[in-house]
Amino acid sequence: MLRNTTTRYGWAAIILHWLIGLVFIGQFALGWTMVRIASQRTSFELIQLHKSFGFLLLGLVLIRIGWRLASFSPELPEEVGPVERRAAPAVHLALYAAQLVVPLSGWALVSVSVLEIPSMPFSLFVMPHLPFQVSEQAENFWIFGHKWLAYAAIALVVLHILAAFRHHFWLRDVVLVRMISPFFAGRARGPE
Amino acid sequence: MSLRVLGVAAFLALDLIGGTASAVALSDAAGRYAISSSGSSIRFAIGKIGGGGLNGAFGQFKGTIRIDGGDIARSKVDITIYPDSVGTGQSRIDAFLKSDAVFDVANSSQIVFRSTSVQRTGENSAVVTGQLTARGHTSSEKFAVELQGMKGGQIRFHVSGKVLRSRYQMDVGTPIYSNIVAFDMQFTGRRG
């Protein structure tokens, strides 16, 4: 039940999926809030929290990618049409890329910032900066990049959620429920 | 902020009497001296995890030294610092320091030190203890004072000490930035 098969997701993939999804959406909300809050003290603390969860997210995504490469990917149900069957891998690839690129761009941002504030995830250890040149221009570039990559990524996530709801409520297949539990994978959800 | 350092005077007098300086009578050192930003400096440094740190200075401050020629221990120092004058060379950090995160200059425009006791520690050195008040919080602090000279109605001394930010609700950023602020101050007092 831990590993994927050709028909269902295992617990490892399921837990990683929901954990990453939760952290990713939470990070978007946190990032949006921390730059708009009036209190500079609270803002500073939220930014450090955002950085901590960003590194956590990056670690989880790397584990997820490794797990994905090392195990099976369940096939789509037979009733899924040809267009969606071709689009799904591209969307999933884009989602994986977003999960990777958004935290990496945040890491680049703190690495080039002229403020040179160290990153200390959850106050546990110092995460070294990436070996990029510190400058005001580079900081502005990565602020722009991180922000718009996050917006693009959250748009993909929304698309992903809508697609999952379509499968569940409209097509009534197992695409969503098999990502909830391996035990749901074999249950056909045809019209009642 | 007021620093009641007495020692300065005492040292002066003692040092002079001891013959290491030109013939200056104790009565010459006794008196009231005014400290201004001109010819004086208040610098500070906060260590950063992983090396380096934050260095800055206060551009505006004032104070008085009253040297009791008869009893050095009764000498007094008062110093008032205006945190709105803080400078680090990075305007974004300056704005952060002035905000509610650190000095909260909108609601607390002064940092005050008033000496409560002076204890001589050497030929020309002393420890000055006093009450430091910042952001509405008052705590006892000690500073090491070294008399550096007296000439033409002016006295010069070097003051150093370490203060915990957390005592004044200024501990934002710990443990990334040290809780300890190291002060390095150079004061020139003019009689009058």
Most extensive chain interface and residues per partner:
A-B, 15 and 17 residues
Number of domains of chain B: 1
Question: Using only CA atoms, what is the Rg of chain A?
Answer: 19 Å
- Work out the strand percent of chain B: over 45%
The helix content of chain A, as a percent range, equals 55-70%
Compute the CA-based radius of gyration of chain B.
17 Å
> How many angstroms does the end-to-end distance of chain A come to?
29 Å
Determine the number of helices of chain A (DSSP H or I, runs of at least 4 residues): 4
Strand content of chain A: under 5%
CATH superfamily of chain B: Lipid/polyisoprenoid-binding, YceI-like
Identify the CATH architecture of chain B: Beta Barrel
How is the main sheet of chain B built? Answer: 8 strands, antiparallel, barrel
- Separation, N- and C-terminal Cα atoms of chain B: 20 Å
Low-confidence stretches of chain A: 188-192
Strand order of the largest sheet of chain B: 1-4-5-7-8-9-10-11
Q: Helix count of chain B, per DSSP? A: 3
Q: According to CATH, what is the class of chain A? A: Mainly Alpha
Count the beta strands of chain B: 11
